[in-house]
């Protein structure tokens, strides 16, 4: 009787783990990949591929640099990272639209956000509500076409100097 209970508990635990790490992430992946392209790697996700790429190419960003090597330039790239689904936006117009809206419609990854906040502070990427609106208003003038056009020579000189 006890063996049956242990066996049943083990089966339930395995089903729970499979559901949490494979089935649910795969369903989420399928929901988003129809808008672009992507790869699903069970359990570890893209981390398993990146580890192999680091060993072969000695470049952690090789995977992301070569996303479009297959010739299919899609607007988004979907992948899993453990049980989470990440969406990489590769279309500049879509990225512009994405950044210009508040984060009511998407969830920022708390681990990624926390790490970036330590490096970058609480700027436009991480602020919310009225603070986000104020930061966006201040930043929009900087990236206005006329403003950028006036700075082209400075940008060109700095680029030549440093690169």
UniProtKB/TrEMBL annotation:
UniProt keyword Oxidoreductase present: yes
Enzyme Commission code: 1.14.13.30, 1.9.3.1
Domain of life of the organism encoding this protein: Eukaryota
Biological source species: Ichthyophthirius multifiliis
InterPro entries documented for this protein: Cyt_P450_sf (IPR036396)
Signal peptide feature range: none
Annotated keywords: Membrane, Oxidoreductase, Transmembrane, Transmembrane helix
Protein name from the UniProt record: Cytochrome P450 family protein, putative
């Amino acid at each position: 009787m006890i063996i049956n209970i242990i066996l049943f508990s083990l089966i339930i635990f395995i089903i729970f783990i499979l559901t949490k790490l494979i089935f649910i992430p795969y369903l989420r992946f399928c929901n988003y990949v129809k808008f672009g392209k992507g790869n699903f790697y069970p359990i570890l996700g893209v981390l398993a591929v990146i580890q192999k790429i680091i060993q072969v190419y000695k470049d952690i960003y090789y995977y992301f640099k070569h996303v479009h090597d297959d010739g299919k330039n899609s607007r988004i790239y979907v992948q899993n990272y453990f049980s989470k689904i990440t969406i990489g936006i590769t279309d500049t117009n879509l990225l512009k639209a994405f950044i210009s809206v508040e984060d009511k419609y998407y969830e920022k990854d708390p681990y990624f956000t926390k790490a970036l906040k330590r490096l970058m502070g609480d700027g436009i990427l991480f602020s919310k509500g009225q603070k986000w609106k104020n930061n966006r208003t201040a930043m929009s003038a900087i990236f206005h076409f006329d403003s950028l056009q006036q700075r082209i020579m400075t940008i060109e000189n700095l680029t030549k100097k440093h690169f």
